Hints:
The complex is a heterodimer of chains A (110) and B (111). Chain A has no helices and 11 strands. In chain A, strands 2, 4, 5, 9, 10 and 11 form a 6-stranded mixed beta sheet that branches. Chain A has a 5-stranded antiparallel beta sheet with strand order 1-3-8-7-6, with no helix packed on it. Chain A is globular, with a radius of gyration of 13 Å. Chain B is mainly beta. In chain B, strand 5 and strand 6 form a beta hairpin. The N and C termini of chain B lie far apart (37 Å). Chains A and B meet through strand 5 and strand 10 of A and strand 4, strand 5 and strand 6 of B.
Amino acid sequence: RKEVEQDPGPFNVPEGATVAFNCTYSNSASQSFFWYRQDCRKEPKLLMSVYSSGNEDGRFTAQLNRASQYISLLIRDSKLSDSATYLCVVNMAGNNDMRFGAGTRLTVKP
Amino acid sequence: ETGVTQSPTHLIKTRGQQVTLRCSSQSGHNTVSWYQQALGQGPQFIFQYYREEENGRGNFPPRFSGLQFPNYSSELNVNALELDDSALYLCASSLAESTRLFGSGTRLTVV
């Protein structure tokens, strides 16, 4: 089983749609969680951290369920500029490596 | 902010050769980590350096080695290149546990 697993995608949605990405992680000792965005042939960039209480940043909402070892990202009112690959990232306390999922590709169409 | 810069941007090497990739960290960042990203995959952690010492390593063989310099810049060295080493190599810098900032990467092709 992979340490971080994501929906394989791709997701193709119209502008204005709501889309949700799911991610599961295998190591229950994991402590920090993030969503990164990676545009084609570019480096990953932090989209948002994920907190146990859930957090929202504009059209983006992230949720964490530690009991189920599950992370989600919800994008409301999708824009063309949201088209990218979304990477789920997990980090363990005391360990310095971040474990990335394979990413889920989103294409928002007019 | 200067950002994280990597060089070269692209590189072609022959199987069996050695390669050195370079990374200049964001000003004020003392931690550098390296990742390998194969096509269609997420980045895989190679190792991390903090104040010139390796303080974390992923599941990569010893022919992947690194250095961090007093100015916190870093090198990734790969010996005995294999075809499967072809990938995008990403460097990320951070200050202690702060968010990692990635460079735009070096695309290595091994032929």
